[in-house]
From TrEMBL:
It holds the Pfam family Erythro_esteras. This is Erythromycin esterase family protein. InterPro entries: Emycin_Estase, Hydrolase/PRTase-associated, UCP036794_erythomycin. It comes from Flavobacterium zhoui. CDD domains: Ere-like.
Amino acid sequence: MGTFKNLNNLTNSSEIIELLKKTATPLENLEDLDPLMDYIGDAKYVLLGEASHGTHEYYTWRAKITQRLIQEKGFSFVGVEGDWPDCYRLNRFAKGYTNSGTDIYNVLNEFKRWPTWMWANWEIAAFIDWLKVYNINLPADKRIGFYGLDVYSFRESMNSIIQYLEKNDPQALAIAKIAMKCFEPYGKDEGQTYARASSYVPELCEKEILHMLTEIVKNVPNYNHDAENVLSTEQNAFIARNAEKYYRAMIKRGSASWNIRDEHMVSTIERLMKFHGKEAKIIVWEHNTHIGDARATDMASEGMVNVGQLLREQHSTDGVVAVGFGSYKGSVVACREWGDFMRKIKVPEAVEGSWEHTFHLASNGQNRLLLMNKIKNEKCLSPYIGHRAIGVVYNPEHERFGNYVPTILPKRYDAFIFLDETSALHPIHIQPEGNQIPETYPFGM
């Protein structure tokens, strides 16, 4: 995405390095996060990024920040770049619901969609186990949740809808089955065949899905058995609706499918915030390309919006703090191509002139935390500078041609965590189902 702009072509590279030396603070332990905690203050939206989907330290530092936000600032739940049905099982397990799973490994083993390692990994296992213990002493309605915000679970969401309606709403069940039947001819690869067919018949199953959503939303006040399961059923209906729109959009070139996906994630955040009440606070875990403001990158010129931009536009008075992540070198879990098996891949030293390379020079190889309020008015930071972004597909030998997003860092994030050397995530090795549309498709982020 975008083109790399070399910092060496600018006259102010040494000025930026000196600025970072003065303003970025050491980051080695939990106490070093204190300036970030102070900066977050009473903000209701904290967005924690990552520069890849397979880096151990991004997950562990996000978990450390999240634990402090929950313990010290009363945050209500975590929303992640994952599927709703899979993450909802984690949510039920973390809250100690009956029949929610015997142990975290068995719950994570239900993650079937490639790339499974994004959430089925030992770093997530450790966090969810911590969350489960933390929740034990809280009232049931105050326990901290863990939810998927993404749009990629049409089949699983439809199955969940039908299972719920079988017990609670026979009339809506009949409508849901009609919608499911409409999709049957396109079910073998969940999305790609439907997308191709929609180029000939633009509407396809749109009316059936919309009818189902309308019926479920209308009847939600009558579903009063388990409030969170009611929320889940309604959310699955919105996923079905937006997934159908996404399928139709992804066959076309341009920004439409990306925007549908990020707008869906924002609308999911809105429903979760409403569900958790007026005092709710959310922590979001997503790739930098989603949580960093798109207007500070070349994404804007391509007509793309993202979660960070939309939340800033809609909720600035409630406080929105976006924290980006990046590293200079190390290793990552990724694939060489779509659907390939996961592997540990070496991440080379960042390209000279990139943000990561500049931080490396400024920090003498040490981890750093930078708060943007210290530097946001510095003129030397106004040009676009390359900022590394690694997706689920990664070929480091081609890195300089497609893995650097032109970025004005102090406008994209409110804070930035630089980790000089990082290591690969620790997946739970399970075989993904190859007939499902991948998470992050087709962008890889």
